[in-house]
Design a protein that fits this description.
The structure is a single chain. The chain starts with 10 loop residues before the first helix and ends in a 48-residue tail after the last helix. It is α/β, with parallel strands linked by helices and 360 residues long. The strands form two sheets. Strands 7-6-9-8-10-11-12 form a seven-stranded mixed sheet, with helices on both faces. A five-stranded parallel sheet has the order 2-1-3-4-5, with helices on one face. The protein is 37% helix and 17% strand.
């Protein structure tokens, strides 16, 4: 006897069979820089599903518009046109929508959320840089070229750090099953994305960069379930007061006590790391086991290169006084650090330096 299994409610977002794109007339100048990036990503990515281009000025009856019905609506328009595009997407019964934008005021974000709820649309955005699904050849993002395909999922609350991680991964040959840049105003929450990835067949491990959460219980429940299914590693900003203030300004929400957060991660079976390289290295070893010491030492130059990219993002500013501390040879795992404001350093013993994956 066969039992029907319902699809996850985020399947139209992450595994769409058809897409409608609102990015202006494809034969004319793009209305926004993100629209240009979206057009280029869709064309170069080679998405094999049905792709339809629509405009907010499209005329016709609801029956005519229904012919353009799709799983996912991609919206990369000026702020004043985004609501009209989402309304059309709801009327043609799109189940998910992505609004690629930046700097949209909170009042407009709230209007988009209300419209999405009214139509039953799962909304990623606004003020999100989108997503990539390399195995589907789907690049619906504003973070650059398509990432290589692989088993690692990246979920980030910072668009700038997402782009930096992808640049680093491209140089190192690291592949991804999913890349999601949530942003500060998205309706789809981090906990919901974790819930989807925990059952995603293409994803073997999950890397999370986070700055804050709004619903702690939902997040902890989803994190525990995901960690039970596959390895999960977390980078989180705000270990020091200066870092917390930066993250609060950027994401409008933050986890309070860093010590409490560490305890929650340990109980959920999640590893906390300070660098992207430490996270990827853990992904390569079953069960996040520590690698051989020689291999870690052989890649020290890669940590330094990634660390420079992280500092350019301003995620690794110095202590509260503004000074930067000089890096030490034993300070592994500083590459693309997770906004530790110059960073809290644990004592480095001469005989045995702490490994980055052991610094949870």
């Amino acid at each position: 006897m066969w039992i029907a299994v319902d699809r996850h409610f985020l399947t139209p977002l992450f595994n769409p069979a058809s897409i409608v794109a609102f990015a202006g007339d494809p034969d004319a100048e793009p209305p926004t820089p993100l629209a240009a990036t979206l057009r280029r990503g869709l064309r170069e990515g080679g998405y094999a599903g049905l792709l339809t281009w629509l405009d907010v000025a499209t005329t016709g009856t609801l029956a005519d518009l229904a012919k353009s019905r799709a799983d996912l609506a991609l919206i990369a328009l000026p702020h004043e046109q985004a609501l009209a595009a989402l309304e059309i997407a709801g009327r043609i019964r799109c189940r998910a929508a992505l609004v690629l934008s930046s700097g949209m005021p909170p009042a407009q974000c709230s209007e988009l959320h209300q419209t999405a709820r009214r139509h039953g649309v799962c909304l990623l955005g606004p003020n999100s840089l989108g997503l990539q699904r390399p195995a589907l050849m789907l690049n619906a993002s504003g973070v650059g070229p398509m990432a290589a395909a692989g088993p690692l999922a990246l979920v980030s609350q910072s668009g700038a750090l997402t782009a930096a991680i992808l640049d680093w991964a491209r140089e190192q040959g690291v592949g991804f099953s999913t890349v999601v840049s949530l942003g500060p105003n998205t309706a789809v929450e981090l906990s919901q994305v974790l819930d989807y990835l925990s059952t995603d067949a293409q994803t073997q491990s999950i890397l999370v960069y986070m700055e804050g959460i709004r619903h702690a219980r939902r997040f902890v429940s989803a994190l525990r379930a995901a960690a039970h299914a596959k390895p999960v590693v977390v980078m989180k900003s705000g270990r020091q007061p200066a870092g917390r203030s930066v993250a609060l300004t950027h994401s409008a929400s933050i986890v309070g006590s860093d010590e409490v957060f560490d305890a929650v991660l340990r109980r959920a079976g999640v590893v906390r790391v300070r660098s992207i390289y430490a996270a990827v290295l853990g992904r390569q070893v079953p069960g996040l086991a520590l690698p051989a010491g020689g291999r870690a030492a052989g890649h020290r130059h890669q940590w330094r290169r990634a660390g420079r990219a992280g500092r350019r993002l301003g995620q690794c500013a110095g202590p509260a006084g503004g000074r930067r501390q000089r890096s030490r040879r034993g300070d592994h795992g500083r590459g693309l650090c997770a906004g530790h404001a110059g960073g809290h350093r644990r004592p480095q013993h001469r005989r045995r330096a702490a490994h980055p994956l052991a610094q949870g």
